[in-house]
Description:
This protein has 2 domains: 2-76, Alpha-Beta Plaits (2-Layer Sandwich), CATH 3.30.70; 78-166, Alpha-Beta Plaits, CATH 3.30.70. The relative contact order is 0.19. It has a 4-stranded antiparallel beta sheet, with helices on both faces. A 4-stranded antiparallel beta sheet has the order 6-7-5-8. It has helices at residues 19-28, 51-66, 77-85, 108-112, 155-166; strands at residues 2-8, 35-36, 42-47, 72-76, 97-101, 121-124, 128-132, 151-154. It is 31% helix and 23% strand. The two termini are 13 Å apart. It is α+β, with helices and mostly antiparallel strands and 167 residues long.
Amino acid sequence: MISKTTLLRAINAGTPLKMHTLRALAAAAGYADPRTYIASGNLLLDTDDSEGEIRARLGPALKAHVGAPVPLFVRTADELDALLAANPFPQAPGNKVIALFLDDAPTQADITAATNITDEQVALGTRHLYLHYPSGQGRSRMKLPAMDRGTARNMNTVKKLSQLARA
């Protein structure tokens, strides 16, 4: 079995879902010992299922529970480790660098589409973008259209998810 982290988009930011309910939905979908980390839609599963199989098993239950589709982004511990190792902003505090998880590889067009940039920086990753907010994400007015098709976690959370996936 491989530990996989499933990241849900828009949970508790318009789509309320308690983490104990998320674990129960995952268990009902046949996943043994599902775990969550903080109340923002981080679900850890030990499974050999592919990303597509996880989406097919969990997606309908999540949609039935919240009344709308819930986008899921699945990464292995190795993928999370690679994301952390390739962080182009390693000297920045972990809470000021965000990984925007996407389904597919981002392109330079995703970066050039950003508007209202002051001191923010955006860099390409494999299936994610790195977003550096030197003045803090809460103060940023940057608009990045790719945000509409992904889900974001800061480097501190990504690091913890990687550790939990390996525990």
